[in-house]
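Tokenise the fold.
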Amino acid sequence: MVRVPTGLPKLDMSIGGYVGGALHFIYGEEKSGKTSLALLAAANAIKLGGKVVWIDCGQRIHVKRLLQVLSTNRADASKLILTPVKDFDEQETTVISLLESTSLGTRLIVLDDYTYLHRIAMKGEVKEDASIFKRLTFQTASLKEVALTNDIPVIIVGQVHEVPGMGTKPVASRIVGYWSDVIFRVENIPTGIRLLKVEKGGPPFEQRFRITDAGVEAID
């Protein structure tokens, strides 16, 4: 079974890292370390001898930061295929292309800001938005199929939104939560520390970490 280390040793011991055949969902508020966790996973996958497909759904990845994490981990940047998508239609086309053919040697697929374009496509009208939800369901189910068919981990990184009286929840939580095998919630806590919680796919687990040039670093 293909496994990619998370970079947080105790988390790897708890859930086995990012596991082949499984869809992993990382969500949290802005600047909580979601993308840094995924970047470190990408570096680790490359160091294991594989390629990484990184789909930038929000076109907001900072290339300088991406290269910083890869360089610090001595991971070959040429092994990461960066694919920006500009709208929800293009995101769907890209997901379908993964379903139809995933390149040989791919060790990990990451979709950063996965629910960003879905949220932009929403009109605020129930009838009009029903088709958008169906398409997101199709895309998420397809990503699960890609993970299973190719026996590789797939990571989706999602945003949160405010729910009156309930704090924050992931965007499209029912859809993404249903299809995900593993769910990490990451939070900002005082003094620049972040907290990761396993919400699905393993025993209850919490890990404090900080963001570094290498991606993230566990704090015991």
